[in-house]
Amino acid sequence: MKKFRATFVALAIVLVLAAYMVFTGRENPATDMEAPMIFGVNSDTMRRIHIAHGDNEVTVEKDNDRTWVVDAPETYEISQEAVNALVMAIADAKFEKEVEDDPRDLEAFGLSSPDTSIVVEGDRRGKKALLVGSVTPVGSGYYVKAEDDTRVWVIPAAMADALIKTVDDLREKKIVKASSESCDGIRIVRRMEDDITDVICQRQGEDWYLTRPIIDKADKGLIDGLLADITGLTVDSFVDDEGSDLSRFGLDRPRLRIDLTVAGRGTALQVFVGDPGPNEEGFYVKTGDSPAVYLVKPLNFSALWLTPPDLVDSQLAKWDHGKAATTATWTLGDKPFPPVSSGLDTLLATLQDIWITGVGESLEYDVDLDSFGFRNPRIYVQLDFGDGNIFEVKVGKEIEEGFYAIVTGRNFVYLVAKDGIKALDETLRELSP
Questions:
Q1: Which contiguous run of DSSP H or E holds residue 141?
Q2: Is the dihedral of CA 419, 425, 426, 431 positive or negative?
Q3: Strand, helix or coil for residue 8
Q4: Which residues of 271-290 are buried (b: 16+ CB within 10 A; e: fewer)?
């Protein structure tokens, strides 16, 4: 009896192993021959692609100018980059493993009434259709077959993802059709209930300047980052192509309007920002060129929080980097010092390390300079660059948040960080004769 029991156990193990090999053999890639191409058409001769996936259908065709356009279900602006990626995936697609040569039951593979089909037409080789069935047991691929062939194959899941596209996958997702480098002006109108802030910045050569509500040099790094955030907006989902009820998305009274002046474009490119999206993720936007409403989910969007003072160039003292000061004079408190011509590199570096933390009153109006301590400044530095112009920095009263300061070429009283002024005081004392 023990002998028979051992025989039965051994037989059961063999049967289990055999079943496992048959079952999992569908997942193992072929190694004895090169996998055949699925569509057999190269990217240059491809002219039409039709993808049906569930209730979604999309057809793209190559136009006379060799660009791709959507033919169905509607005419949308599509991303040439996205379609070209699809074209390359089709051209490179290969079957991975033949499962069965002529199966009796296609239902086992989800291929009796497949949910997905991909039809590719070329210039010379006619039409080729791929039917996509169910996912393989371990989830690493899909069962597929050519429409005109009986064989069932497996393709990797990554390949299926690259081939199965909806119209939204292929639509243009870049909202602003301009590069940050092509923008030479930006206007941001922000609405906070009944309070409206209107900020305008203009490019002048390599620099940016605030022209509203204050006139001052702008922080180029912040402006560049702001433009990158705006021109980098991409669609997360297409919400409403008609834009029939903007109030649903807070776009009837947008909290933000952005106008970009773009080189070569006659009118400003406008972006409107509405309410936050579901679960406070992202926000709704539309452009002035289209009625469509989009949901975007940028990691950062500085236009929502930057204020005019934030945009001011935070480096107090700037001059042409090609210039070198020939002499410098300064006053510490009530004590003036004679002109100095040596050690000026250290002084210039120290001055350039003074950072603005706040913007106060405009010097264009009748400002009481004495109230800021500028009538008898704590520190008064004059730099002569040898071009007939004197560059001046005055440091006034100290308050808890820092020091007041004014400088040649800037139109406001600024609050500057304490550490920069203390470093300047130490440098001047070291250079004093």
A1: strand 141-146
A2: positive
A3: helix
A4: bbbbeebeeeebbbbbbeee
Query: Are the C-beta atoms of 142 and 135 separated by less than 8 Å?
Result: yes
pLDDT in tens, 141-151: 999 999 999 99
Query: If we measure between CA atoms, which residue out of 54, 51, 87 comes closest to residue 72?
Result: 51
CA distance 354 to 367: 23
CA torsion, points 257, 258, 261, 262, in degrees to nearest 10?
A: -120
Tell me: the pLDDT tens digits for 37-93? 999 998 989 999 999 999 999 999 998 878 899 876 677 888 999 999 999 999 999
Structure tokens at 30: 């072929």
Sole residue written with tokens 């790094």: 221
Cβ contacts of residue 335 below 8 Å, gap of 6+?
Answer: none
Length of the chain in terms of residues written: 433
CA pair distance 295, 307, nearest whole angstrom: 24
Tokens 């053999």 -> residue: 25
Query: Beta strand 402-407 with 390-399: parallel, antiparallel or unpaired?
Result: antiparallel
Per-state percent for the chain, helix, strand, coil, to nearest 5:
25, 40, 40
Report the amino acid identity of residue 247: S
Helices 344-351 and 418-431: crossing angle in degrees, nearest 10, is 170
Nearest to 143 by CA among 116, 171, 175, 183: 116
> What's at 284, amino acid-wise?
Y
Cα–Cα distance for residue pair 338/331, rounded to 1 Å: 9
d(CA 5, CA 202): 91
What CA–CA distances, in Å, run from 344 to 69, 101, 115, 339? 63, 85, 76, 11
Q: Would you list the domain boundaries of the chain? A: 46-170, 180-311, 327-431
Tokens of 356: 């603005």
Sign of the Cα torsion 306, 310, 315, 320 reads positive
Q: What residues pair up with 207 in beta bridges, in sequence order?
A: 204
| Beta carbons within 10 angstroms of residue 96's beta carbon | 19
What's the pTM value of the predicted model, to 2 decimals?
A: 0.75
In this structure, what token pair is assigned to residue 411? 């139109």
